Amino acid sequence: MVRWRVRPGLHLAGLGLAPAIVVTSLAIDILLLGASRDWSALGGWDERFIARTSAFTPSIGLISGIVELLRLGPVATAAGLAVLAITNGGLSEEIGWRGWALSSLRGSGRSPLVASLLIGAMWAAWHTSSPVWELVLTRPWREGLDALAVIVLQYTLLTVPLAVIYTVLVEAAVGSLLVAVLLHASYNLTINLAASAWPGFPMITMLVLIWLVAIALTLTRRLWRAEPAPAPTPGPTRPGRSSARD
């Protein structure tokens, strides 16, 4: 599951894909769509990030323990964000999504596309946090269900194409969970920094780019075909030793 020795390009893809999508989204927004950006808005990003992070404290235990650390300055805020990205999302989620769910679904004969769609749907439901349920349960039941459906749909529009990208990258790394953790941490880190630095960050443009990447991967790799997932190649055995016990 945790394979360190994979092609170096896969580690770079895990770390660099999210920043590339964010930079491309900003470039499209400014150069093609004519949006104007107030570069002075970059100032005070750390205070905005702390405010965003503090809002999740009731539902994410680790955050409540390090919010005060984030208040020590921009460097501490960036370091704290990196820790949160790796632990809350990277490690805490990927053990389940790609470490167990993806391998189980692929092992049962489902195609990479079907496995990704199922994980994307579960992933969206997972992200309905306590504030969402408070919103749903404090409204009349029909309004609450409508609000829940809209929120889950919004998450699904993001998690489904992301799940496709994760599946392709993890299977290219022969099931390496490390690559998935790097991608998840890089995505959380990049998106949170971008959203904190620019309150008007072009999320729609970014979402369209993510869908285009997922569709391109689906078509070029024919993810609808139910072929077995790549199996790890056995490592070399020492001379004079048998790989099996007598």
Q: If you had to describe this structure to a student in words, what would you say it looks like?
A:
With 246 residues, the chain is an all-alpha fold. The chain has a domain at 8-35 and 88-221. The chain is 71% helix and 0% strand. It is built from nine helices and no strands. It has helices at 8-32, 45-54, 61-70, 74-107, 112-126, 130-137, 141-172, 177-197, 203-221. α2 crosses α8 (177-197) and α7 (141-172) crosses α9. The chain starts with 7 loop residues before the first helix and ends in a 25-residue tail after the last helix.
Nutshell version of this structure?
The chain has 246 residues and is mostly helical. The protein has a domain at 8-35 and 88-221. Helix content is 71%, strand content 0%.
Helical run tally:
9
Note the main sheet.
Answer: none
Name the beta content range. Answer: under 5%
The rough form would be described as: globular
Report the uncertain regions.
242-246
Q: Tally the beta strands.
A: 0
What's the overall average pLDDT, rounded?
81
Features of this protein?
246 residues, mainly alpha, 9 helices, 0% strand, globular, disordered C terminus
Helix and strand arrangement:
Layout: H1 8-32, H2 45-54, H3 61-70, H4 74-107, H5 112-126, H6 130-137, H7 141-172, H8 177-197, H9 203-221
Helix pairs in contact: 1-8, 1-9, 2-3, 2-8, 3-4, 4-5, 4-8, 5-7, 6-7, 7-9
